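Comment thread on ticket #2218

A.B. wrote:
> Attaching the input chain for the structure job we discussed in standup.
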Amino acid sequence: MVDAAKFEFDITNDAASYVKTYGYLQIRNTAPTKGEQIYIPQHPKGGAKKIAKTQDDADSQAALVLNLDYSIAVQGVTYNHLIAYSADTEVGSSGAPVMSRGDNSVVGLHRIGDCNNAATPSNQLLSALEAIVSGNDGIKTA
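C.D. wrote:
> Ran it. Output below, let me know if you need it in another format.
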């Protein structure tokens, strides 16, 4: 199960102007690698954007992917096949993209915070997204 929100709006008449104004992110068609450096642009508690790029408050070590097949139980529900990482995220950041520092592509969708940061990996997101929107350049091939 992919934990993602689906927004519906019609941009087919002038999609290029939306891309020019807001830009877009490319999602990687493969999962990240263990040890890959990542960052997470987030809007904690609906506030101003902050970028979680380190694994501690001292900003001394880059955030890394730690586990590629992570499982965790939250409020009686077990989530499987997630990626786990060391980014220092804040409350209210679920739904933020997990980005690779190497190529700036989306490698996951942040969904679990606190001490157990985890995301749905990009390869799982991709199958759900392709069912909604196919044939676009938002997919980064490895």
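A.B. wrote:
> Thanks. Noting for the ticket: The chain is about 15% helix and 30% strand.
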